[in-house]
Specification:
This protein is an all-beta fold. It is built from 1 helix and 26 strands.
Length: about 375
């Protein structure tokens, strides 16, 4: 494991999961990400129990057969999207173990290894950032050569209980949208993780009263309304918060954006959580969704920031935590052979168990049927 984060589903089920990244591997004609999901606990669930069928990992893209999991080369300002099938009749699914299928078979305390295939990345690129949209960015993940996997520096127990982390700051209850006071919410700041390439702000939105939910959440403080509507791929996203380094003289940092060339959609989208996935659930009181907003890197040596939520009082002196370095969890590449798999619509790969590591790799012969999309970081 070269990175891990704990996240609780915002679908009303409150399933706590550990999301982990295990490897970014080169293959002939492409690149593969190995990652995993381990349910840790849930209401009235014990070890070995199946999670409810309604679990939503929050990573599916609306109207598309692919997922919000990206590889990022921040220095070249490139974002690599999952390979998608070229034929419309194939629903342009990604060459991956599908999120919708994995969600159906997860069990508490059991790890499911998943995989996503991407375009080839430059030969001289030795690390990437991995963006799994509901959790902070995984920084500095090593890229292994063809036929190799990273060696672990120590044993990993993915089903271990999560450590409790205190909330760093909270707003007062506020009405949203503010001009109509339709529903009341709270915002909690959970973590600010800083690396040399990004800043990940992890925050939670909690509903206090019943209301209209998030279906039209396009305004501050939840979303940023500063981008022209015609340029937004998705206006209902966790783009609202801004951050300012303590004692900084520069202006606030805003959500990092990227182009959206997939399926010629055009426009821009944020590197952040999509709020549409939780819109209906958040109509009810006492619901919480944990989301992430990714912003540019902070100046070196920044130890605290202010979080600006337009329309609300500033939350000052929020401590900054250095993002874990993915290379520190790898003892270097190790040569290992892997089996191969082919995507079929009737029997897509549902994932693998840890004892099947290293997981099979997609057959290179099928890559010609898939479209490679590389987007640009903006701002």
């Amino acid at each position: 494991m070269v990175g891990q984060a704990v996240w609780t589903s915002g679908d009303g089920l409150a399933i706590q999961l550990r999301i982990a990244v295990h490897a970014v591997r080169r293959i002939e004609g492409g690149t593969v990400l190995d990652w995993s999901v381990t349910p840790l606990r849930g209401p009235n669930l014990g070890v070995g129990d199946a999670v409810p069928q309604g679990l939503n990992l929050g990573l599916s893209r609306f109207g598309e057969g692919t997922t919000n999991v990206f590889l990022i080369d921040a220095f070249r300002r490139k974002v690599y999207r999952p390979l998608t099938h070229a034929q419309p009749r194939e629903l342009q699914h990604c060459l991956c173990s599908p999120i919708w299928l994995a969600q159906r078979s997860l069990r508490v305390g059991q790890t499911t290894l998943l995989q996503v295939a991407y375009p080839e990345i430059p030969e001289g690129l030795h690390t990437v950032d991995v963006d799994i949209a509901t959790v902070p960015l995984f920084w500095h993940v090593p890229v292994t050569p063809i036929g190799m996997v990273p060696q672990a520096t120590s044993p990993t127990e993915l089903s271990r209980p999560a450590e409790r982390s205190p909330v760093l700051a909270s707003t007062a209850v506020f009405g949203y949208p503010r001009q109509r006071q339709q529903q009341q919410f709270l915002i909690h700041i959970d973590a600010v993780l800083a690396s040399s390439t990004f800043t990940s702000l992890q925050w939670s939105l909690q509903s206090v009263t019943r209301g209209d939910g998030l279906e039209a959440a396009t305004l501050p403080p939840i979303a940023d309304d500063g981008l022209e509507e015609t340029k937004r791929y998705n206006a209902v996203a966790a783009t609202g918060p801004r951050i300012v380094p303590t004692n900084a003289r520069s202006g606030p940092l805003r959500t990092r954006l990227m182009t959206t060339r997939l399926r010629d959609l055009g426009g821009l989208e944020c590197l952040c959580s999509d709020l549409r996935l939780w819109a209906t659930v958040m109509r009810s009181p006492r619901q919480t969704v944990s989301v992430v907003t990714n912003l540019p890197a902070l100046p070196n040596g920044t130890t605290s920031v202010s979080v600006l939520l337009p329309g609300l009082p500033t939350l000052a002196r929020i401590p900054v935590t250095p993002a874990p370095d993915g290379t520190a969890s790898s003892a270097g590449p190790l040569e290992r052979q892997s089996k191969a798999w082919t995507y079929t619509a009737s029997d897509p790969p549902a994932g693998w168990s840890p004892d099947q590591w290293p997981t099979p790799l997609p057959r290179s012969s099928q890559l010609n049927s898939y479209v490679a999309t590389v987007d640009d970081l903006v701002g």
